[in-house]
Amino acid sequence: VPRALVAEEAGGAAEHTPLLTQDEQRDVLEHLDLVLRNVSELRKEVEELRHSLQRLAADIVGEVRSHLEETQKVTRRRRFPFPRERSDSTGSSSIYFTASSGTANTDDAESEGGYSTANAESDYERETERESEEGEDEVSCETVRIARRDSLDLVSEDETHLLVDSSLEEGLDQLLQQADRLHSGDELEKREGFQLLLNNKLAYADQKDFLWRLARAHSDMCEMTGEVDEKRSYASDGKEVLELALQRWDRSAECHQWYAILCGQLAEHESIQKRIQTGYVFKEHIDKAIELKPEDPQSYYLLGRWCYQVSHLGWLEKRTASALFETPPTATVQDALQNFLRVEELSPGFSKAGRVYIAKCYRDLGNTSAALLWTTLASELPATTKE
């Protein structure tokens, strides 16, 4: 606590009196805490910007390298810039003859050491070059077709539908079914599902149902890992996937739902200010998901958790929310309970954690018998997740 400095003339007998009252000292500490958190956030944002610039530089290098490789292929195909064509016509427009003599001379006697020898040697070379060029052209065209198929920026929607034939769609259906099965399994299966989706990202990066499952797999990896930096990385990458998806498919309930989940996971290790800001985004996307798909129990479960956490905000969090926003988030335990009961109505036994939350809500509301009942009901369900 700051103390008043005593003048030397007063001697050692003078009493030290505090400069600030207890309330003022508390306010100063709160402001210092807020400043330190803002500095920490700024440092993290600078670090994220540095990583983004590094990724951008890597992308540019990759594009330049591929352009150079394509240029080298063209150069190899054109290593004989003047094709040698043999013609018996005196009006031949062959570049070889025009460049050599200025006229098309068909008299073999006059070109005894020149054109006849060159033409004789070029018969085999011409055929070989033509076959080589045709083969390389076919490879080059196929490469261009694949690159266009993989690029969302170069292909229109009509062309995309033409390229994605029935076999590709069938492969996507099988891939999504396998991803759903692995997502419902243990940690090893979830990791396998994550790798499976990553391996097929280039082929199906323009498919909505693939993208939100890829984001879901990032959420699974975030939940399973114990390292804070890895959690942030998985949650951030999954969030970026859905940011791009929502630009095209704003009417997808699954995209909104998993975007909210990843935002929540990303904010778990952030400052109070960042968590409160994320809370608004979370609520906005969960409300949108419920609007688009009102019979999905998971959205109501997530909304119930949000309401319960908001109803239990601490004093410092409430003060921070009031300082940052004109209308701080508000929710009651009763709001949370209604959402959790809605989950049980739509899908009884949907979540062990959901029943535990119902018991906690009844406990907070003073209904001990109902709290004990739902605790018993929760114990009857298997524990399938860490939560």
UniProtKB/TrEMBL annotation:
InterPro entries the UniProt entry points to: RMD1-3_a_helical_rpt, TPR-like_helical_dom_sf
Residue ranges the record marks as coiled coil: 32-59
Keyword Cytoplasm: yes
Entry-linked Pfam families: RMD1-3
Key words, A-Z: Coiled coil, Cytoplasm, Cytoskeleton, Membrane, Mitochondrion, Mitochondrion outer membrane, Nucleus, Transmembrane, Transmembrane helix
Biased amino acid composition, Acidic residues: 130-140
Region annotated Disordered, chain positions: 72-142
Membrane topology: Single-pass membrane protein
Residue spans crossing the bilayer: none
Biased composition (Polar residues): 89-106
Domain of life: Eukaryota
Any one Gene Ontology cellular component term annotated for this protein: mitotic spindle pole
Any one GO molecular function term: microtubule binding
Main localization of the protein described in the UniProt heading: cytoplasm
Localization of this protein: Cytoplasm, Cytoskeleton, Spindle pole; Mitochondrion outer membrane; Nucleus
The family this protein is said to belong to: Belongs to the RMDN family.
UniProt name for this protein: Regulator of microtubule dynamics protein 3
Organism phylogeny: Eukaryota, Metazoa, Chordata, Craniata, Vertebrata
Gene symbol of the encoding locus: Rmdn3
